[in-house]
Structures are given as C-alpha cells and as structure tokens.
Amino acid sequence: MNSIDSFLKRFEHFGVELSLERIYQLLDNLGKPHLQVPIIHVAGTNGKGSVCAYLSSILKAAGYKVGRYTSPHLVDWTERICLNEEKIPSSILEQLLVEVETAIQPEQPSPTQFEVITAAAWLYFAQQQVDVAVVEVGLGGRLDATNVCHQPMVTVITSISWEHWQKLGPTLSHIAGEKAGILKPRCPAIVGVLPPEAKKVVEKRITDLECPVVWAEPAKLLAESQEYNSLPVATYQGIEYKVPLFGDVQLINSAIAIATVQVLETQGWEIPITAIKQGIAETKWLGRLQWTTWQNRQLLIDGAHNAAAAQVLGRYVRTLNYPSISWVMGMLSTKEHSEIFRALLRPGDRLYLVPVPDHSSADLNQLSTIAQDICTKLDFCQVYPHLTPALEEAITDSKNLIVLCGSLYLLGHFIKMKSN
C-alpha cells in the first residue's frame, strides 16, 4: 500500500485544478476507456457517497457486474475503486497506475493526483467490462475529472449546500451551477431536495437541456427503533425496505437511489423489487453515523465535515436522548467551523479538540475560542496534541455518549489506528 501512497504523492503538488483538458488528454492516450463503460454519475454536497453505495449494492443484487468510484478514502486508496462491492486489489491498482503514468506525455501538462486515480478507475472498469459504473463526482461537477462522459444513463444531484466556495463560487447559485454541470442533453436526471436558490439554477439547466427529471422526495418512515442495531423500515413508491444507514437524511438518499434504478428499468434494465430491498438492506458506508468501540466503550463516528452533515449528526444524536455528549473533534482549516459547532454543541457537552494528522488542520486554540463563544455553557473544552489521549480522557471522564467527528480524514486515522 505504501507504494501506492508514494506513487500518488508525486502528483500531489499539482493540487486541485478544476479543468477537463488534462483528463481528456490522458484518457485519449489510454484508448478512451471512459467511453466503454455505461455510467450513473452522482454529484451533490452531501449524500452522494451513500447514494453510490445504495446503487452499487442494488445493481449487484440484481445480478449486474458493477464498478463504483468514490472519494475520498478513509484508510487507503483501494477503497475508491470497487468491483461488486470489493475493493480493487492493491497489486492491480499499482499496475493500473503504472499504465496511467506511461500514458502521460512529457510535453503535456501533468495531470493532478485526482485525475491520475480517476483515469485508473476508468481503465479498471473498461478492462473488467463492467455492466455499469456508479461514479461519484470529486468536487463540484462541471469541471470535475469524472465529468467526461457525454451520455450517462442517469445523472443524480443529491443535495446542494454551501461548501468548497473557495473553488466553486461564493453563493449557492454558483455552487448549484457547478453541480448542474454534470447534466447532459436529454439525459434523465434525479434530483434531491434543494434550497430554492439552488433549485432555480438546476431547474433552468434541466429545462435548457430537455432532461427528463424526477424530483425525489424523502421516503416515509414506517417503523423506527431506538436500538442502534435494529433497522428502521421505510417506504418509497410502494416499496417497503429496511434502511441500514443511520440518520434521517437516509430517507432522501435511499429514495434517490430507488428513483435512479426505476429510470434504469425504463431503459430495459431488469431490477426486481427483491433486488432493491436486498441491495439497500445490505448497503455499507463507512464513517457515516457508524457505531464502533474503542477500549470496550461504544462510540459513534461520523465525518460531519460541513454544516449540512453536522446538522444531520446533531439531529441523530438528539434522538438518542443522552443528557450530554462528549465530542472528540478535529477539522480542516478550510471548513466552516462556527456552523459545525452551532449544529452540534449544547450546554453541558464536553469538547476534546484534536489535530487532523497529515492534513491542513485548523488551529486548535482558535477552534477552542470559537466553540466557547458559540456554546458558553460547555462543561469542558480542551485541546490535545493527538487523538489517542483525547479519546482516553473522554472515556475516563464521563458516562456521556462519545462522538468522534469533524473530518473524514480524522476518521480514517482512527480506523487505521484501531486496526493496528
């Protein structure tokens, strides 16, 4: 795995540069593998990973050979590229990366790290002759390296909220315009519930491109259990199914997935209701409202890396009826720290602030000041040099529910640490 890390590190200094020129050039050099794969293209601020996980699980249950490409990874690069829910073997990924590097012409601008791994994914899916690839947008949509297919079978926009404004633009309208950039002429679109400002932009694009559209509504909850290991049952379009991922947001995410496969059925795909139910029930998506243990203590882990995701976590935690929460949190410097704290912190809570290893971590003392300004009645607020002492103190200090959150990279570090 280290060889994959060190290989891809060589492309890190090219940064995130939203443009399609380099990826088209690279894919041309590789024989245009992206044109050999039928795709479902999924964009959105939050929910796109869960929707991709539902879709690939349903399509696998229906008997299809399914590729799935998502980002970021939690522990290692192989998580990003899956075939029938199995991570790509690292030896095969290494071979593909060498193949991609060989295709980079010295006189052409070097591709970015994301473009290199994206090209490897297209190559893998083409070589494996998948029936379908479920492809998640990395950042934005219009200029994202995944946006190279002129005729996806379906395009999906899960949600739009304020994130990555540094690259996508300062308003929801700008961000919506970038996400709507994945829509293609007369290609079916499935769209989740959007804020009015964003919906207006997406609607105009859909009209201009004459896309048949389904505006998905959240599924209805039929039964809900407070036990974290027994699954709620939901219904959408007359289909009753168990929802294995936690949080009320999964009612819209699962509905979007069902609406998407129903469009595929109109295109001749055979996806029986039994496959929809089984596929959803078997869906796994790491690091999103996931229960785990640490030193024999149950804890909840969740990315909650932007305001909308933090609101989902906050709502879920409050259904559990704990008197107060111990938050172990780390955040990147680029995130909207105040909004995340507002969504989560309540009087009496305890806050343990930690750095996000190997990333541009927010200044912990600044975070501490912001948190105590927003929630003046925190029971405790302390900064720690590493995650381990913070978790150990959180466990020793109280009987509170312990939640580790604030960054998917932090969760990846925790999962890796736990498995060592």
- Number of self-contained structural domains: 2
The CATH architecture of the largest domain is 3-Layer(aba) Sandwich
| CATH topological fold name of the largest domain | UDP-N-acetylmuramoyl-L-alanine:D-glutamate ligase
Proportion in β-strands = 15-25%
By CATH's scheme, which homologous superfamily of the largest domain applies?
Mur-like, catalytic domain
Tell me the distance between the termini.
Answer: 14 Å
Low-confidence stretches: none
Biggest sheet, open or closed, and with what strands and sense?
A: 8 strands, mixed
Structural class: alpha/beta
Please compute the radius of gyration using only Cα atoms: 21 Å
Task: Tell me the helix content.
Answer: 25-40%
Count of DSSP helices?
15
Number of strands: 17
Main CATH class of the largest domain: Alpha Beta
What overall form do the CA principal axes indicate? globular
| Biggest sheet strand line-up | 4-3-2-5-1-6-7-8
Average per-residue pLDDT, rounded, comes to 92
In short:
By secondary structure, the protein is of the alpha/beta class. 40% of the residues lie in helices and 17% in strands. The chain has 15 helices and 17 strands.
Structure description:
The radius of gyration is 21 Å and the shape is globular. It has an 8-stranded mixed beta sheet, sandwiched between helices. Strands 12-13-17-14-15-16 form a 6-stranded mixed beta sheet, sandwiched between helices. It has a 3-stranded antiparallel beta sheet with strand order 9-10-11. The longest helix has 17 residues, at 250-266. Strand 14 (325-329), helix 12 and strand 15 form a beta-alpha-beta unit. The chain has 2 domains: 3-282, Mur-like, catalytic domain (UDP-N-acetylmuramoyl-L-alanine:D-glutamate ligase, 3-Layer(aba) Sandwich); 290-419, Mur ligase, C-terminal domain (Protein-Tyrosine Phosphatase, Chain A, Alpha-Beta Complex). The two termini are 14 Å apart. By secondary structure, it is α/β, with parallel strands linked by helices. 40% of the residues lie in helices and 17% in strands. It contains 15 helices and 17 strands. Keywords: ATP-binding, Ligase, Magnesium, Metal-binding, Nucleotide-binding. This is tetrahydrofolate synthase. Residues 42-260 form the Mur ligase central domain.
